[in-house]
Amino acid sequence: MTSYLLDTLKNRFPEAVLETHAFRGDETAVVKKEALLEAAAFLKQELGFDMLMDLTAADYLPREPRFELVCHFYSTTHNYRLRLKCPVEAHDAAVDSLTPLWAGANWFEREVYDMFGIKFNGHPDLRRILMYDGFEGHPLRKDYPLKKRQPRMLHKD
Q1: CA distances from 37 to 27, 93, 105 (A)
Q2: Residue 49 belongs to some domain of the structure
Q3: pLDDT-based confidence at residue 156 (cuts at 50, 70, 90)
Q4: Pick from 55, 69, 101, 127: CA 20 to 30 A from residue 34's CA?
Q5: How many domains is the chain partitioned into structurally?
Q6: In whole angstroms, what is the distance from residue 73 CA to residue 35 CA?
């Protein structure tokens, strides 16, 4: 079964869409990270996806590309849902920020940066959001040592 949304995305970005799949209304497109911002802008401006519901990541160590960024979009006008995924290599763990399109991407991207170490180019305030400033490493990475001792937090009175 073909999907209008996925077909439209593939036709608009034939070189950037790596794969697509749809199952029971769950439509997903995998795009090159270089095209993420442009594809997201197309979804918002041309297809009416006015809500970024979630943005997260997954670590597939030892697979390369190691990470996968996952964005869930929703159109309140058309009641469409679409997931964009984009592979992210460990040696170049950075993608363009979606904050110019959705202000709500700010905290989602900060969480992904904090937990996985993926940077977001053009983010207005990319700093830790869940861990304290002196925390070393990124705790949702598969190679994060479970018994790692962290520097103590010093209270400033």
Answers
A1: 19, 15, 12
A2: yes
A3: low
A4: 127
A5: 1
A6: 16
117-154 pLDDT, tens digit per residue, is 999 999 999 999 999 888 889 999 999 888 777 777 66
**What is the β-pairing status of strands 67-75 and 80-88?**
antiparallel
HEC per residue, 52-120: EEEEEEEECCCCCCCEEEEEEEEECCCCEEEEEEEEECHHHCEEECCCCCCCCHHHHHHHHHHHHCCEE
Residue 69: give its domain's CATH number.
3.30.460.80
Count other C-beta atoms under 10 Å from residue 152's C-beta. 8
Q: List the one residue out of 13, 71, 62 whose CA is nearest residue 38.
A: 13
Question: Could you tell me if residue 16 is inside a domain?
Answer: yes
The stretch 53-66 carries a mean pLDDT of: 96
Indicate whether 1 pLDDT > 60. no
